[in-house]
């Protein structure tokens, strides 16, 4: 194990790989909104008897979530940011499926005539959690959507591509462990699809109006919010400590498990002295004390940690009661709801060797 093999020369390469992922995903997303709305309009014009209703939304969401999990789990994931580029077609397909799902949810709640490409993009950006650049305003039970200029729409697509790229690279397991990484991404894909559906539904259930007004500039407060949300806080140290506790929850750590954790430590973007401390923690018999205060403020990171833990726990095709209880304990500390926690734990279903 070359624990300290990372040099300053590797950092720009990783940043370059992340930039390539964002740029190429952005290029693939540019025409998706128009393409999905056009195809959906044509389909429902020819199949008016298949128009969705509010009661069909759960099945629409479940179908999309399962389909996306299969796509993610079947992708031949290469470790590291560069590996994400190899599965970019699968990532773009997942986004396309999620857009189609959001369109169907809007149609189910009677907003079919309002669902042009601009509106679909605005709702998807909101549901994705990337911000809306001022295109959506919520006042109580009223939702007002403005149309975006071409220049603003390009900025909006950049923002969404950056959010998706950042989310894909959040997972400790997903970034560096080939097989378990694909499993973690499958779970994250399924879980995030449900989350996107829930946020989109929360908009479409309200008094939903589309204004003729075009917006060309980003609102000042929106710029500040996006700047803060783009700050990638490093929780690798905390995540690895939680995974070490999980690995030895049954009283012992096998050689294979030690190698597994050691790889995560080696690849983590943390200082060398912190890596040494983590290696020492691996060899200590006592449970590591962890302060979850900081990570619990980020729901995305909290759920990502839980999915990483579940992927590790199930990598031997077993989910021991001690592992389940520990993950539930961490989930409760992170303020993850019981339903979301169960969804995360059940999402990782693929076999791992």
Question: Could you describe the 3D structure shown?
Answer:
By secondary structure, the chain is mostly helical. Helix content is 64%, strand content 6%. It is built from 16 helices and 3 strands. The chain has a 3-stranded mixed β-sheet with strand order 1-2-3.
Q: Any chance you could write out the topology, listing elements then pairs?
A:
Blueprint: H1 10-29, H2 32-46, H3 57-74, H4 81-86, H5 88-108, H6 117-128, E1 136-139, E2 142-148, H7 150-168, H8 172-176, H9 178-204, E3 207-215, H10 220-229, H11 236-247, H12 255-267, H13 272-282, H14 299-313, H15 321-333, H16 338-347
Helix pairs in contact: 1-5, 1-7, 2-5, 2-6, 3-5, 3-9, 5-6, 5-9, 6-7, 6-9, 9-14, 9-16, 11-12, 11-13, 11-14, 12-13, 14-15, 14-16
Tell me briefly what this model is.
By secondary structure, this protein is mainly alpha-helical.
Q: Could you report the average pLDDT, rounded to the nearest whole number? A: 79
Largest sheet: 3 strands, mixed
Molecular shape: elongated
Helix content: 55-70%
Strand/helix succession: HHHHHHEEHHHEHHHHHHH
Number of domains: 2
Widest sheet: strand ordering: 1-2-3
Q: Which class of secondary structure composition applies to the elements? A: mainly alpha
* Number of helical stretches of at least 4 residues: 16
The number of distinct β-strands equals: 3
Indicate the low-confidence ranges by residue numbers.
Answer: 1-13, 220-233
Strand content: 5-15%
Distance between the termini: 21 Å
């Amino acid at each position: 194990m070359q624990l300290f093999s990372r040099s300053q020369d590797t950092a720009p390469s990783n940043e370059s790989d992340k930039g390539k992922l964002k740029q190429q995903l952005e290029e693939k997303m540019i025409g998706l909104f128009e393409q999905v709305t056009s195809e959906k309009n044509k389909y429902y014009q020819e199949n008016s008897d298949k128009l969705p209703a509010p009661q069909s939304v759960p099945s629409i969401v479940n179908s999309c979530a399962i389909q996306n999990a299969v796509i993610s789990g079947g992708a031949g994931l290469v470790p590291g940011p560069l590996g994400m580029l190899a599965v970019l077609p699968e990532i773009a397909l997942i986004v396309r499926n999620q857009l189609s799902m959001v369109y169907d949810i809007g149609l189910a709640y009677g907003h079919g005539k309002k669902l042009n490409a601009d509106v679909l993009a605005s709702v998807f950006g909101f549901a994705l959690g990337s911000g809306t650049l001022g295109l959506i305003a919520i006042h109580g039970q009223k939702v007002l959507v403005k149309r975006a200029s071409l220049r603003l729409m390009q900025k909006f697509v950049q923002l969404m591509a950056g959010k998706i790229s950042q989310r894909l690279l959040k997972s400790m397991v997903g970034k560096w462990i080939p097989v378990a990484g694909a499993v973690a991404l499958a779970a994250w894909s399924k879980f995030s699809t449900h989350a996107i559906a829930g946020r989109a539904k929360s908009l479409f259930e309200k008094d939903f109006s589309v204004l003729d007004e075009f917006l060309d500039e980003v609102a000042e407060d929106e710029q500040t919010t996006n700047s803060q949300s783009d700050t990638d806080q490093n929780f690798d140290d905390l995540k690895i400590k939680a995974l070490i506790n999980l690995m030895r929850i049954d009283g012992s750590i096998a050689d294979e498990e030690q190698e597994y954790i050691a790889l995560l430590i080696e690849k983590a973007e943390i200082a060398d002295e912190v890596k040494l401390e983590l290696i020492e923690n691996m060899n200590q018999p006592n449970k590591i004390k962890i302060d979850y205060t900081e990570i619990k403020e980020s729901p995305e990171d909290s759920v990502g940690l839980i999915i990483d833990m579940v992927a590790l726990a199930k990598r031997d095709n077993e989910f021991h009661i001690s592992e389940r209880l520990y993950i539930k304990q961490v989930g409760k500390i992170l303020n993850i709801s019981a339903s979301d926690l169960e969804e995360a734990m059940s999402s990782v279903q693929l076999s791992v060797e």
